[in-house]
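Please decode residue identities from the backbone states below.
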């Protein structure tokens, strides 16, 4: 029989990989799948931390039985109620009808709404504990990271923090679950994309939650997506969450454009070259019609400057550009530089209609919004290049030592 993955002598990994789902939340591409992580603590009492998507319940229960056989599960701790983690709770109740479910008031409101479960509930709040034998688990509330009911569970005996979706990433766990035994370059990239798409709006709540970690002696972090973090990689993961939740864009720029016939694209290239001419090494230029929104959002969180260009489309902003601007507004990204440009064939409207975005976001406008008609002339291309140089100069002012 295959050995079940152990986190410590008493804590087992019972998560699953999903390599069939194309879109997370039916929005964000999963280029290499995603994991749904669940953990089983075997002590005097058997305690399960979260479940998995209902589609993988058979594999999930097989792993549990491989560890405990016919022994019952005494407690289910629900750190997060999102269905990719709570989906198997209904089935779990059928397998283990006497199981006690541990959560907070908001957890149980959702539990009733999703699964019509309202019995054998143990309500906990900040600082409460649960004795399961040789260890006493402690609970910390982590609201809006990224749902209101989220909480963390801490095992002081093994110094393990079960962090729900915090520090999670896209990507299946292929070959090993630990950070030191896998390609972290991939997972760090996917962590930024995951954060931007899933958690991004709630930076101030993330910051409050991160402060709670200062008082805990943590050696292992068990998130519900992605690798199990140890001293090997967690410092990097923590840096990502700290930086992104503070909206601390790095020295660099994303140049985003929409283009129907190539004119806005040519102008975007010259603006990007102008930024690069000022020594800015991190410049990424994206065609909004060909680049998935998740990568655009990731880089808006990643870099300090956002340059956006749109053609006029039916007297309005080009729809894919309008969609991205709306996604950025939803995430309430703060403290960015922005430059605006565009093109039209007869009646220019896009540049004018993008101005309220800058005002609403309260971002610093660099240069004057700039619009061309038809194909750009050499003078107009030069003007675009100079707009890019203005962006580069401002980045150098903000990051003089980089």
């Amino acid at each position: 029989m295959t050995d079940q993955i152990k986190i410590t002598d008493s804590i087992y990994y019972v998560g699953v990989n999903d390599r069939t789902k194309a879109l997370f939340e039916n929005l964000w591409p999963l280029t290499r799948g995603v994991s749904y992580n669940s953990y089983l603590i075997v002590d005097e009492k058997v305690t399960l931390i979260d479940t998995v998507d209902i589609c993988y319940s058979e594999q999930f229960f097989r792993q549990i039985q491989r560890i405990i056989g016919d022994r019952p599960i005494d407690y289910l701790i629900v750190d997060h109620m999102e269905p990719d983690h709570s989906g198997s709770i209904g089935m779990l109740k059928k397998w283990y009808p006497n199981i006690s479910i541990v959560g907070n008031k908001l957890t149980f409101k959702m539990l009733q709404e999703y699964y019509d479960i309202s019995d054998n509930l143990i309500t906990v709040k900040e600082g409460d504990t649960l004795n399961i034998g040789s260890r006493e688990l402690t609970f910390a509330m982590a609201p809006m990271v990224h749902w209101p009911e989220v909480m963390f569970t801490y095992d002081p005996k093994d110094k393990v923090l079960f962090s729900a979706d915090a520090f999670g990433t896209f990507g299946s766990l292929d070959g090993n679950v630990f950070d030191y035994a896998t390609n972290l370059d991939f997972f760090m990239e996917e962590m930024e994309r995951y954060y931007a798409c899933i958690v991004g709006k709630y930076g101030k709540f993330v910051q409050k939650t991160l402060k709670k970690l200062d008082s805990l002696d943590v050696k292992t972090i068990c998130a519900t997506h992605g690798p199990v973090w140890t001293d090997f990689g967690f410092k990097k993961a923590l840096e990502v969450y700290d930086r992104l939740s503070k909206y601390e864009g790095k020295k660099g720029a994303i140049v985003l454009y929409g283009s129907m016939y190539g004119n806005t694209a040519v102008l975007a290239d010259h603006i990007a070259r102008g930024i690069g001419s000022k020594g800015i090494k991190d410049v990424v230029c994206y065609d909004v019609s060909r680049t998935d929104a998740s990568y655009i959002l990731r880089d808006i969180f990643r870099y300090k400057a956002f340059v956006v260009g749109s053609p006029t489309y039916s007297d309005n902003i080009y729809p894919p550009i309008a969609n991205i601007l709306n996604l950025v507004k939803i995430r309430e990204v703060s403290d960015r530089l922005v430059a605006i440009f565009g093109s039209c064939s007869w009646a220019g409207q896009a540049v004018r209609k993008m101005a309220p975005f800058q005002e609403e976001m309260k971002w610093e406008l660099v240069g004057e919004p700039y619009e061309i008609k038809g194909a750009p002339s050499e003078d107009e291309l030069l003007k675009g290049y100079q707009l890019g140089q203005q962006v580069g100069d401002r980045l150098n002012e903000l990051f003089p030592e980089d």
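Observation: The first strand starts at residue 11 and ends at 13.
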